[in-house]
């Protein structure tokens, strides 16, 4: 938490007296302390009993990732001028929000707060951010009451929040520290959340900090999981995409490197091919007799979204492409409760970028050519 620097002034009697920080600033920090306690307690309640029985259990909640990518794709649609599709998609997202509030997973709450503070819709106007935030605050008030940390943070006026980036950084640190206490500082879930922190730093405009976080993560995870692990590959992909998207940010984060765009693009394509193969292997394991073909427009749209770093929706396009065959061959395969939201957002992206124009009836294998 922030250490307040008290200012000293001479009083009328010639003796110094201290001036405290403004009441509103102190109140926000008090709320953040409560959020830290609540986050730690939530993770302990969720996972400590299960960790005793299953030491290698992994806290992976796809719903938060789908929700985060959905908001980001609304921002993408606004950026390319597809306003009607963007607002239609946003309405569908907001209709699903109450289900996310009912689940007490801290990762879901942080994702909701990211959306309220505008980090997940960077291309949206401030007026839209304000309306979304008010809507989310109202839902939280009804479902969790006025004293819940999320309700209080969502109810703050923008001018009262001070630096929203400071609030997000504190909350991100709360999540990381809580995960470290449950899974350990070198636990896979803790490492993965550090990757999420790097993504948020980039969205907040802290590009150098995002790069430094990823460089450190690649180094420690290469030693811990192996340099050819999927997690290291994804981290390298994210780092190279950030460098391509923000070339002016090349500074001390590169530690003397002179990145070449062609080299970075090669690494990006290598990462995409890796996940292409990974999915094919997964499908074969789940149902060896399934037809491993998906419409070519899905491949192309997934590739586009992967380059935009919308990983969850991109992988969803792959999975849903062969879902009919999987369901027939393996009745145990069931759709996620949030699959329909990913379907809606992916369809909006398909319409916006007119991917289906030439490939409406074509299919191609999962391991088909990408170039």
Describe this structure in words.
With 371 residues, the chain is mainly alpha-helical. The chain has two domains: 21-276, no CATH class; 277-371, no CATH class. It is 67% helix and 4% strand. The strands form two sheets. The chain has a two-stranded antiparallel ribbon. It has a two-stranded antiparallel ribbon with strand order 3-4. A hairpin with a 5-residue loop joins strand 1 and strand 2 (16-19). Helix 3 runs parallel beside helix 5 (126-144). The longest helix has 31 residues, at 23-53. The termini are far apart. The relative contact order is 0.10.
Quick structural summary:
The chain has 371 residues and is mainly α. It has 15 helices and four strands. Helix content is 67%, strand content 4%.
Write the layout of secondary structure elements.
Elements: E1 7-10, E2 16-19, H1 23-53, H2 62-79, H3 83-102, H4 106-116, H5 126-144, H6 149-155, H7 164-183, H8 188-203, H9 207-225, H10 230-245, H11 261-286, E3 293-295, H12 296-307, H13 311-321, H14 323-329, H15 339-353, E4 363-365
Antiparallel strand pairs: 1-2, 3-4
Helix pairs in contact: 1-6, 1-7, 2-3, 2-4, 2-15, 3-5, 3-15, 4-5, 4-7, 5-6, 7-8, 8-9, 8-10, 9-10, 10-11, 12-13, 13-15
């Amino acid at each position: 938490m922030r250490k307040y620097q008290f200012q000293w002034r001479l009083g009328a009697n010639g003796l110094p007296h201290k001036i405290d920080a403004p009441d509103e600033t102190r109140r926000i920090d008090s709320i953040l302390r409560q959020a830290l306690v609540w986050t730690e307690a939530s993770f302990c309640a969720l996972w400590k009993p299960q960790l005793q029985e299953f030491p290698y259990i992994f806290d992976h909640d796809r719903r938060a990732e789908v929700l985060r990518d959905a908001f980001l794709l609304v921002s993408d649609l606004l950026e390319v001028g597809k306003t009607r599709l963007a607002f239609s998609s946003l309405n569908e997202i907001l209709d699903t929000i109450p289900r996310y509030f009912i689940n007490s997973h801290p990762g879901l709450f942080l994702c909701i707060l990211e959306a309220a503070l505008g980090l997940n819709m960077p291309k949206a106007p401030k007026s839209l951010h304000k309306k979304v935030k008010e809507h989310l605050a109202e839902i939280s008030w009804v479902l969790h009451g006025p004293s819940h940390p999320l309700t209080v943070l969502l109810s703050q006026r923008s001018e009262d929040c001070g630096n929203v980036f400071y609030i997000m950084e504190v909350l991100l640190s709360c999540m990381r520290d809580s995960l470290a206490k449950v899974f350990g500082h070198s636990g896979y879930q803790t490492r993965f959340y550090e990757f999420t922190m790097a993504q948020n730093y980039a969205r907040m405009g802290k590009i150098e900090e995002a790069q430094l976080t990823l460089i450190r993560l690649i180094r420690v995870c290469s030693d811990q999981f192996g340099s050819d692990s999927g997690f290291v590959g994804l981290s390298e992909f994210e780092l190279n995409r950030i460098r391509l998207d923000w070339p002016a940010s090349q500074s001390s984060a590169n530690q003397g490197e002179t990145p070449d765009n062609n080299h970075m693009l090669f690494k990006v394509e290598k990462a995409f091919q890796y996940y292409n193969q990974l999915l094919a292997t997964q499908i074969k394991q789940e149902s060896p007799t399934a037809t491993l073909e998906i419409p070519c427009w899905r491949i192309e749209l997934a590739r586009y979204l992967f380059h935009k770093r919308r990983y969850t929706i991109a992988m969803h396009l792959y999975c849903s492409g062969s879902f009919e065959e999987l369901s027939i061959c393996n009745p145990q395969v069931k759709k996620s409760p949030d699959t329909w939201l990913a379907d809606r957002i992916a369809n909006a992206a398909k319409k916006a970028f007119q991917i289906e124009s030439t490939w409406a009836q074509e299919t191609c294998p999962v391991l088909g050519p990408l170039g």
